[in-house]
Amino acid sequence: MNILGLTALELGRKIKEKEISVVEATKAALHQIKAVDGDIHGFVSYDEESALKRAQEVQKGIEEGKYTGPLAGVPMAIKDNICTKGYTTTCSSKILENFVPTYSAQAIENLMDAGVVFLGKTNMDEFAMGSTTETSAFGVTRNPWDTNKVPGGSSGGSAAAVAANECFMALGSDTGGSIRQPSSYCGVTGMKPTYGTVSRYGLIAYGSSLDQIGPIAKDVSDCAALLETIASYDAKDSTSVKLDAYDFTSALVDDVKGLKIGIPRDYFGEGLDSEVGQAVKNAAKVLEEKGAIVEEFDLGLVEYAIPAYYVIASAEASSNLSRFDGVKYGYRAKDYEGLHDMYKKTRSEGFGPEVKRRIMLGSFVLSSGYYDAYYLKALRTKALIKKEFDKAFEKYDVILGPVAPTTAPKIGDSLSDPIKMYLGDIYTISVNLAGLPGMSLPCGKDSNGMPIGLQIIGDCFQEKKVIRAAYAFEQTRTYEAPEIAKGGAEHE
Amino acid sequence: MSKQYETVIGLEVHVELATKTKIFCGCSTAFGGAPNTHTCPVCTGMPGSLPVLNKQVVEYATAVGLATNCTITQNCKFDRKNYFYPDNPQNYQISQLYLPICRNGKVEIDVDGEKKDVRIHEIHMEEDAGKLVHDPWTGDSLVDFNRSGVPLIEIVSEPDMRSADEVIAYLEKLRLIIQYLGASDCKLQEGSMRADVNLSVREVGAEEFGTRTEMKNLNSFKAIKRAIEGEMERQIDLIEAGEKVVQETRRWDDTKGASYAMRSKEDAQDYRYFPDPDLVPVEISDEWIEEIRSAQPEFRDEKMKRYKEEYDLPDYDIDIITGSKHLADLFEATIALGSDPKEVSNWLMGETMRLVNESEMEIDDVAFSPEHLAKLIEMIKGNEINRKVGKEVFEKIFSENVDPVAYVEEHGLKSMNDEGALRATIEKIVADNPKSVEDYKAGKKKAIGFLVGQTMKATQGKANPGIVNQILNEILANI
Questions:
Q1: What is the tens place of the pLDDT at every residue in A112-139?
Q2: Burial class of residue A325 (count of CB atoms within 10 Å of its CB; 0-12, 13-18, 19+)
Q3: CB contact under 8 A, A205 and B91
Q4: Residue A492: pLDDT above 70?
Q5: How far apart are CA A189 and CA B352, in angstroms?
């Protein structure tokens, strides 16, 4: 049986029906990691021994009725900025290369309770700062569709690992598009939930007011099931919101009749690759044919999202990352004279250039005399952008658009021009600024065979509408995996 | 000095709140404990940890604000103050800058009968830092995070004080209000109350303020008074010498009686304050404020009035007893056990204050239980012991909190109330001291004192003095 070709829910079902054991599934994933991760480098670290040990425990737990959920026994990967007790969590940074958390993130606790198996931690842009996974201190992750291309970022390792069948699903985090954009580049499905839906406790913060943990998987159903598992009200996170219901999978219904879909004209202007634009418009047509009401509209303020985002996220990051100082944990410079020299050398040696750039930018916009002109203005812009969306959601159930202006660029093309890289976040960033849920799912390929992503955005806590629209669209397609995903299992 | 100068003083007072747990996590605030045992990922700044506000901190801060006539900010926020120091695990302190919880308050002070308002600019909530421990053997510096995250409020006054006496009166007033609220024990020596003094001088009649300095490390009222007087002189000397006062932070060295510059305004750090995105705004509803207001205790002024009306105590006694929440509590608890208020007041004003002064301790450190004082008073009233023995026993109660009943029993201190036995003793003393009897008969009535003394001596002080006097008078009359 081709275990690796299964979705997470399919695998969970087969495990429950005793067609596949948890250990078999885990071994298959580990085998694939060993076979292809040399080329992909989706993982910062994985632990065969503890994964297999956990697989045995989970198998026993399923048999004893301890784990009854749909994802019990499914092997998965975790982005390396989510704390896992007793297991290194590096944020793909030298400054945390040896950091072993003393506790697990709430999302991880929820997954433990659901009986999933952890394979390892996935590569990312250092501290989630980047859109290509090239800023990782531990080497670039390669796109499984074309290893000369980037997987996107910052959750590039998670998206690539799912696409390459190295795991059945993964967790990512999304501050400005870090789940949706790599999902789009790698041809998988990812979702950024409404701010407050998944506890941030244990997610190493980049931009605290924007960060959310979310699922990356092969299809909409897996995403909904994984979100259902990780979402919870958590008293340890003051920004956590208690929802009336967490039954996201109940929205997996192939019916969009009467669903009102808005398409922002502003998302189809200059800079958008024509093949990407066409694929997204085709997707809208498909939904229209299924009974949805599709309309174009002017969203407004789109061009202000990027500057507002880089001011807010960098400001928060400059403060969030100040705890990495060599005093308590993580990397400390070898030779130093006195406290300030230790701080300086540790941070100079421990952080990469993109992280330093954002710390400097953030420190600048918060400094006295500039606070009002930059930081406060950015906060006001954020509030105005939210208002634009509020207006749109008075008319529409969901908004549909591209995820990124282009498909995955070549490795090395983006780093030389950070502004160009920042501009690539134009369609994803405003979703974080407004705290909305957004999903990326495949809607075609360009002439080079690279996947194109479709973004569906909902109003706050309207995940179910997003899931329903995405699911209905997905029913018109079949999941396509890159060639490399089919490799390893045959050597079993 | 040719010109007349006026001192202008404003205070920043930090008060450690008496919550059981820290401001942003569930760790204990208990003092002591092995290093880093009252810690968790939150108060040690572990990556990914998040703060959650302790509601009790808001209640205490609001209560202090209401008691100092502040306006409560019903939608207040926390901000991050960014600076690098190893005792600060996140390298930012969570504090309040833009929207502090209380604003625009005032308290009335009284210096030698002259009443005056000191305005409060704001009160804000914040977290305490950890403690650095320097190991002289290895030269290493270690950090103990047990204090990290202990809740503080900072009370910032307007520059309304003009002398050290006004400053002390203001601090004592604040301390009492906060102690009465139970929001803190406010011990300067232990650091649960800390005051930084902002001081400038100007010529009398001048409109503009002079350049101010900020004085830190003031650990007692005495140190504060000395530091204010020292700094006032230093600034006047500078001005008289034609020099300028530099705006700077200075550190007071109380053993040397002098202060030293720590940092000037030029090295002032940019703290890059911004709203903490990990915390949500604190909504304080009208109902919540009313709840806190209605739960407020009887404050000193009300207590003073009541003591006068209910117990008819002398003003001086009332002043002393209500001058310490601890003493007032002790007073009321003892009365609640049935003791006579005047009697209790006498013990507190007399023996207790004497022993406090002799042992150079603070009233707030008096540690005997009201039950023991009540029993002692009861025993004296019932003539089980005499007053002299009572004072001896009280010393033991004061120093070791002994149970007076058991102690008197154990040490055989019970009064000799047996008239027959006493009469025999006294007859012997009268017989042995003919000279005194003669003096007495000759009109020197004082001579009876000697005979009483001898009797007390012979009974190891246990004789009931009333009975002794009565028998002696009888015997002497019959001679």
A1: 999 999 999 999 999 999 999 999 999 9
A2: buried
A3: no
A4: no
A5: 77
* Distance separating alpha carbons of residues A218 and A5, to the nearest angstrom: 10
Query: So what's the pLDDT on residue B6?
Result: 95
CB A229 within 8 A of CB A261: no
Contact A156, A165 (CB under 8 A): no
pTM score = 0.89
What's at A278, amino acid-wise? Q
Interface membership of B280 toward A (CB under 8 Å): yes
* Phi, psi angles (nearest 5°) of residue A379: -65, -40
Q: What is the pLDDT of residue A219?
A: 98
A223: number of CA atoms within 13 Å, CB side? 35
Proportion of chain B above pLDDT 90, given as a percent: 71
Q: Tokens 């019916």 belong to which residue?
A: A255
Tokens of A108: 């991880």
Q: Which residues of A346-362 are buried (b: 16+ CB within 10 A; e: fewer)?
A: bbeebbbebbbebbebb
Highest mean pLDDT among A464-478, B257-271, B300-314, B411-425: A464-478
Q: Which of B49, B84, B86 sits opposite A322 (nearest CB)?
A: B84
Question: DSSP of A358-377, one letter per residue?
Answer: HHHHHHHHHSTTTIIIIIIH
The DSSP secondary-structure symbol of B308 reads: I
**Mean pLDDT along residues A319-331:** 97
Q: What is the Cα–Cα distance from A423 to A401, expressed in whole angstroms? A: 16
Question: Is A131 considered catalytic here?
Answer: no
Nearest-Cα distance to chain A for B144, in Å, is 11
CB A411 within 8 A of CB A142: yes
Residue A276 DSSP SS3: helix
Task: Output the six-digit token pair for B169.
Answer: 């009166």
Residue A465 has pLDDT above 60, yes or no: yes
Contact A101 B46 (CB under 8 A): yes
CA distance A61 to A115: 8
Nearest CA to B89 out of B144, B25, B34 is that of B144
Q: Whole-angstrom Cα distance, residue A234 to residue A203?
A: 13
Give B-chain residues touching A375 at CB under 8 angstroms: 274
Task: Look at residue A140 and tell me whether its pLDDT is greater than 50.
Answer: yes
Known catalytic membership, residue A178: yes
User: Which of A155, A158, A178, A318 is the catalytic position?
Assistant: A178
Work out the mean pLDDT of chain A and round it to a whole number.
96
Q: What residues of chain B lie within 8 A of the CB of A315, using their CB? A: 274
Q: How far A88 CA sits from the closest chain B CA (Å)?
A: 12
List the catalytic residue out of A79, A192, A218, A464. Answer: A79
B195: helix, strand or coil: strand
Query: For residue B2, what pLDDT is reported?
Result: 66
Q: Which of A477, A479, A470, A476 is nearest to A261 (CA)?
A: A470
Whether A205 and B278 lie within 8 Å, measured CB to CB: yes
pLDDT confidence of residue A455: 98
CA angle A107, A113, A115 (to 5 degrees): 105
Structure tokens at A100: 């072993």
Per-residue confidence (pLDDT) for residue B246, from 0 to 100:
93
From the number of C-beta atoms within 10 Å of its C-beta (0-12, 13-18, 19+), residue A394 rates as: exposed
3-class DSSP state of A313: helix
pLDDT digits (tens, 9 = 90+) for B412-425: 888 777 777 888 88
Strands (DSSP E) contained in B183-315 are 193-203, 213-216, 248-253, 258-264, 274-275, 282-283
3-state secondary structure of B259: strand
CA A95 to chain centre: 22
DSSP string, A110-179: HHHHHT-EEEEEE--SGGG--SSS-S-TT----BTTBTTB---SSSHHHHHHHHTTSSSEEEEEESSSTT
Instruction: Kindly state the helix (H) or strand (E) to which residue B332 belongs, with its residue range.
Output: helix B325-336
